[in-house]
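hey so i finally got around to running both of the ones u sent me last week. sorry it took forever, my laptop kept dying halfway thru and i had to restart like 3 times lol. anyway pasting them below in the order u listed, first the sequence line then the structure token line for each. didnt double check formatting much so if smth looks off just lmk and ill redo it

first one:
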Amino acid sequence: MIGAHIIKLESAIGKSRVGISFLLVWLLANTNVAAQTFWQQTNLSSGVIVRSLVINSSGHIFAGTADVGVFRSLNNGDNWTQVNSGLINLNIQPLAINSSGHIFAGTLGDGVFRSTDNGASWTQVKTGLANPVILSLAINASGHVFAGTSGGGIFRSMDNGNTWTSVNASLTNTKVVSLAISASGHIFAGTNGGGVFRSTDNGDTWIPVNTGLTNSSILSFAINASGHVFAGTSGGGIFRSIDNGSTWTPVNTGLTNLVILSFAINANGHIFAGTPGDGVFRSTDNGDNWTLINTGLTNSVVEVLAINATGRIFAGTSGGGVFRSVDSAFPFITHVPSSLAQSNQTFLVDANITDDTGIASATLNFRRGGDLSFTTITMVRVGDNYRGAVPAESVTSHGVEYFIIATDLVGNITRSSSSGIFSVQVRTSGVTKGSSQPSGDQSAYRLISVPLNLDDNSPTAVLEDDLGPYNKKKWRFFELRPDQSYSEFPNTSAMVSGNAFWLLVREADKVIDTGPGISNRTNREYAMPLYSLWNFIANPFNFTIPVKNVSLTSGRSFELRTFTGSWNDPVSTKVTAMQPFEGYATFNTSTTIDTLFIDPDLTPAPGSLGKEFSATITEKMLWSIRVLAQCQEAVDEDNIAAIVDGASNAWDEMDQPEPPPIGEYVSVYFPHPEWDKLAKIYCTDFRSGSSEGYVWLFEVKTNIRDKVNLSFEGLDEVPAELEVWLMDEALKITQNLRERNHYTLAGSEHPKQLKLIVGKRDFVDEKLAESQAIPTTYELSQNFPNPFNPVTTIRFGLPNAERVTLKVYNLLGKEVVTLVNDEKREAGYHISIWDGRNKHGNLVASGVYAYRIRAGSFSMTKKLVMVK
């Protein structure tokens, strides 16, 4: 498993690190370690000219030779066996292996041979191959085989070599010496005198890409993990392209031989170049500088290079057989990670690190959980071990993350933990919420959680030291059960990290702390079950987690909702991050339990630039109307009717369920039982923009016995040619919202249905026809309910537009309150709500009162009864 420890040098230790080759010179000058032999002769020698080397997934090595066919080694080159059964031409030029382990051998004169049994036997496969002199081979991710020939251009096989087709469109030079394929499937062809050609359509067409390329004889290619392409030329050295071959730059510093026969790149990103006469050069800085590494290489004509899974390098030479690098072993790190640290105390990391050639450096890379970058420090030798110290200021309730990097004297690198990071949980005496809890009633409820694994996670232990013994007049605590009912303390669960609870605090300036506990591990995702319908969840870590780091096992989309006196608007005030101590509501649309994962690794993923869902909705939204409701302090502000490009008139993921209420509440929602979803009521109802008009049915309910004030925002966004009306069918009341954008009704737990109608005049007139009744005489209806406590509705009708005054009097004839003060009202039915308060805002006493209307010359008085 040595290969599992390999990492890219630059990403592991940062660009500020001294280059490995420079570091090696310093170490040799300042230690007693002698220079090490880099190359060792394998048992394939005896004057064999090796033209090609390939290594399969099992580590078996195949060497293609001039005139003696193919050799195979099953033991890293210790022994070699000729495997030529079926080969009728032993002059092997290129070799290639596909993902199935099938080997292709190109010959100088008899085309291509294929082995499907690890080289034991070979079959000629050249149907359609018009030119049998094969100079190069390459295989793409789809298994298509490309053969470059001497004068016949390029042939392609899409059936594992059985048949071949010429693919030479726009290929003006047909002597193709080298081929390479990038991770994106782009093919590069190096020609003898024509430079580089590139195909982005699987070889169907080719374009020359030679800008900056001053030598047009291309002998070899290599492509690194970043997609940088390296071209080895005959006399011009090495050229590098960082833009997929569009432009080239010479990178020859340190090269003493400018004929480049071969390349190989290891997992560290180090590049090796083989030359005819000067052996092998290595670059550890992406080709900017080259250093000769020939110690032990007794034949310096290096025709081919290959690297196996453990990082060992093999060099095929002209007449010297195959050499291999001596130090293929990577540094070996023995480290037993600690599971726990103490907050604000230095944390020591010890590791035993060994290597055959000696250790050049050992570094400890650490960070707090939730941080983006690691701090790197040099580990010091302590006896037989290396030690690094994480400073006390980095040991916090966030947790600690670290890994170790060891580098040996020839540049091999091991990272431990090879799979990612070590996570250390940190014990702390407790953490404190950064702000005091909101106080009051109705709108002061908040979802709360704890971002630690607590020693005592009972609500009593967590909250009573901050809020006092449980007292419903001072604070209340609720849990949402899977059946969607609420249970109140003491019948609530423990405050386990990841779960959230409702907390209401009536006294001001109360700050919550957790008590002692340990941080949760940060090197793995935190998982929690999501039951059907609503769940209250929380961030289990004491640092902010972006929502992009949250996912479901099912892969379904989800929305997080937060409550700060009212539920957030899921479009314009979308939750984008989970904060410690806060709680969030989320809806599971499935009838089965899903699992939610929170990933604490905040390191940005390459190319993670996706748009937020809310931005997409906002960009596609043509217009929207927001319905706001307030009843005393209770507020509901997240209700949106909108026209969105691409939305469905039935249910789609833009339609968000109405979150559950708590305490004394007011709720507005769009009922949609016909959608046949788990959610029956929604806070957003988005439609497509293709209709002459739209009708949104919505309901209002509250458990507060008071009036509910509705207001409608966003009317200016609605196109001017569309009318916007509110309709109360039960009371036959209609209201032009462009003229008056507010409406008051008596609060009730029995849902009150209203309709929002938007459309062109004909559409609106049709919808309003039944309810837009005009009385033939003046009317003053009996209030309802009657008797009442403390809110009642008074309905009146006008056959003509009039200025209206409506007042309430006591039985002595003294004015109690004016409900409508000489306001102009259109013909039709209207309502006024009395909340049982006088003109000073105080509740009146129980008893009989009179209400009187004056509308033009019309006047009428009726009695009503207030009962407390």
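and the second one:
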Amino acid sequence: MMKQKQRTAKFLTAIIAFLLIFSNIDLAIAGETSTESIPQTPKEPIVVNGDNVEYFQEKKMVVGSGNISIKYKDIELTCDKITVYLDTREAIAEGNVKVTQKGAYFTGERMNYNFDTRKGTVLTGHFASNPFYGRAEQLDKVENKDTYKLERGYVTTCDLDNPHYRLQARHVEIYLNDKVVAKHLVLYIRNVPVMYFPYYVQYLKQTKGYVTVMAGKKKEWGYYVLGSYRYHLNQAMKGDAMLDYRTKDGLGLAGGVNNYHDFGKMGKGAFKVYYTKENGRGDDNDHPGEIERRYRYQLRHYWDMGEGTDTVALLEFNKLSDADVIKDYFYNEYEELGNDPDNYLTFITSKPEYTSEFLMRARFNKFQTVVERLPEYKININNMRLFQNIPLYYTGAASGVYLRKLLPADGTVQKATEVGRFDANNKISYTMQFFRTLNVAPFVGTEDTYYSRTLGGETNRIRTVFNAGVETSVKFYKIFDVATNFLGIDINKLRHIITPTANYYYTHQPAIGPEKLTQFDEIDAVDKQSYIAFGFENRLQTKRMSGGQLKSVDLATLLITSDYSFRLKKDNATIYKQRFENLDLQLELIPYDWLYSVSKLSYNTKNSAVQTASIDLDAAITNKWSVGARYDYEKEESGISNLLTADMMYKINDKWRIRAYETISLFKKSVLEQEYTIYRDLHCFVAEMTLRVVPHNDEAGLWFVMRMKAFPQTPIGLKQTYSRPRFGQAVSHTGFTD
């Protein structure tokens, strides 16, 4: 009897398939185990799988029940029961409905969906689109777009059924892999309303949140609160609106905007403005009660003018109220870029044969020392072979510029030096190779420079400089057939490469010495010289498995460089003194994937002493331990800087981590800075509690910060701003002086 029913079912399925093919109906139906679609029709067929699927010819309708599954293009729909209308290609799904598209999914008890228009509605549903989760009374799939609309629901990054927090809104739009837009949004912590936003946008491809609040205490500011709100006017305009408050006398409310624009083919950039008021600063201020307005304006723009031109344009404009405003209010930016921003407009053209640049540089802040270029045009001709059968090459450079050096204003008098200058540099080189490993390239060149004025008041002078030299290098290597895992170092053969270089450079006595010229840049500093630049590189390599195949990796690299200088008597080539200049060494070690170390040393041969030295070490020993350490030594006229910095992180378990950080002055035998942090994983948040002590500045603080896992750059809590040394950076970037 059972076999008879199965034969009958197969027969009916065949008859239905035959009717569908010849009636241009593009729905494929399946029984308990069928997964085949019907190959026909100009439209993509709809495949229905389920425990029980029935076709009603007169009504042109298919009804299925039990483990229903439909895959259509990039959408997969599962449910307990479904009804599909063949004429309209509409479907009604009921019971445990789940729609999955591009990693996002939506669930509910009932859904209406049209396979042609790709529009659908889910009633009382849940959704997940990483990193967001949520619920709504109604979920709508928008026609022909990867867009979903939620009515009277909430979104959160917490995946619990009862989330720790939620953003509840009347209307939410989700653009898959792009952004989430909400209107009339209320932030709830558990069931307590905390904050209201009339409009909120979160782009899924960025990790920074839209509201940032930082509070704390600082010696220069007193107690403070720093807040910012990220806005998106449209695809071309977005940014951060800032509102800050500081309690110290003379301060108060301050604010600004960091606006980022993207005009497509017309380029992209940023406009930043910040404004505050404060009483007179410093002990030498004659009017301590006088209100001082402090501000910064910045405009930056980059424009790629198209493939046909191979030209890019860059614009940067900075207007500051004083020399310290960036240092006082944007210390991280000051550390990275300094306190001396530039003002320029340039057009750079890059061709295979040459690179040219048109530059305008001007001063807009009177407290700066600036060499204005009004304007400058320069061109660099790339290495060009002159003859096909002869390895003779030409390189050249030329520039024309009107220079004006402006010093900081001294009362009402402003000092300036103005010079017109044209420079042409030409070089001919010849390359040779001996024994397949020795490369020799002699060269000769001239540099002619026109000056409209010299320091002595002479006008229309031409300086001619002759230079020559030879560049040599040789490469040796040997392969050792070694395969071992000694001490866990994975070695599959060893290759030792030795590359010594020796380059000789000679510059004849210029017709006009640098002491007779205003020093604008390196062109004016050209002087007689004769030296050999030595270099010696040792590299040790092995092969390790990567991407299913063995690839070469560096285990160790040692680089030694030094210049051997010949001192010449003035106006002739007689050598009267010769010696090595600074000796520089760099050693880079990467024995394991988790361990990296680089050491640098500069030895001053004139003083017979080490000038600078540093050692960097970064290690992630296990998934629980990570350690970073840096040692810095620098000898200057003002004294010796001798710093040791250490940063250690330990993961106790999945919930708790601890971190310790210290900076120590070995020369003074004192601690410059200490930090101890405890991290607690709160499912969708990470809580941080940090104790920071700066003994030499009598500062101590304890602060608490909450960070969303989905958007780790969004801190909320109490924190004091500061600048921590980063491993691999120079000592001057630490923010400390010894």
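quick thing i noticed on the 2nd:
Helices lie at 2-22, 325-329, 331-337.
anyway thats it, ttyl
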